[in-house]
Write a structure and sequence with these properties.
Layout (H helix, E strand, L loop, with lengths): L1 H69 L2 H5 L4 H10 L1 H73 L5 H43 L1
Helix pairs in contact: 1-4, 1-5, 4-5
């Protein structure tokens, strides 16, 4: 009788430990993902900051270069309409040629920056995809763990019912053991509900990522 009770207690303890281990593993996995997420986010943030700074400096350099080219012509052309500027530049072809070359240089720099922005967006998309896939893999793992816990709960219930029917445990002992199993069961149900909510969030992120990549 004592041996049987010990076996039942051991089974319940193992089930409880699985549930606790599940939570601990989830936390470890989450912490690892958060660390990677922060590192990637920091890297992307720094890259974006550099791109924005490059864009700002290009704008400043272009304005400065244009003012240098215009020189004394700047004040003269200040209040001219676009049509008047066109006529004025036709009268000063050398100035027009310099401005055109300067604008072309700006255009080339903008193209180069645009390419860098595309690369940045691709890296950002890759980082998002990595996070999605990592979370999906982790969720699948814990979903399977929950299924395994469900199986152990069913087995534990059947076992204590059989022990009660055979008179190997009292009604009070049965109620105590069932209460413990029910606590674990409720915890696992809550855990599965969280997993479902997380899966829905992942679907939304995948949809947003798909839209970005289109």
């Amino acid at each position: 009788m004592k041996y049987i009770k010990s076996i039942i207690i051991l089974v319940l303890a193992l089930t409880l430990n699985i549930s606790f281990a599940q939570e601990n593993e989830l936390k470890k996995g989450k912490d690892k993902l958060e660390k990677i997420k922060k590192q990637k986010k920091k890297g992307l943030h720094n890259q974006k900051k550099k791109l924005n700074e490059a864009k700002k400096q290009l704008k400043i350099a272009h304005k400065k270069g244009r003012n240098t080219i215009l020189g004394e012509h700047k004040e003269i052309m200040k209040n001219m309409s676009s049509e008047e500027r066109k006529v004025y530049l036709e009268k000063h072809p050398e100035l027009g040629a310099k401005l055109k070359a300067h604008n072309m240089e700006l255009k080339n720099h903008k193209k180069a920056l645009k390419k860098e922005h595309v690369k940045f967006n691709n890296k950002k998309a890759d980082a998002t995809q990595y996070k999605i896939e990592a979370k999906k893999e982790r969720l699948a793992y814990f979903e399977q763990r929950s299924i395994n816990v469900d199986s152990k709960i069913v087995a534990a219930k059947k076992r204590i019912i059989k022990q009660k029917e055979d008179g190997k445990i009292t009604a009070v002992e049965y109620a105590e053991k069932l209460a413990k199993i029910t606590t674990i069961e409720n915890r696992n149900i809550a855990h599965k509900a969280k997993m479902i909510a997380k899966k829905e969030l992942l679907k939304q992120k995948e949809a947003r990522l798909k839209k970005i990549n289109e």
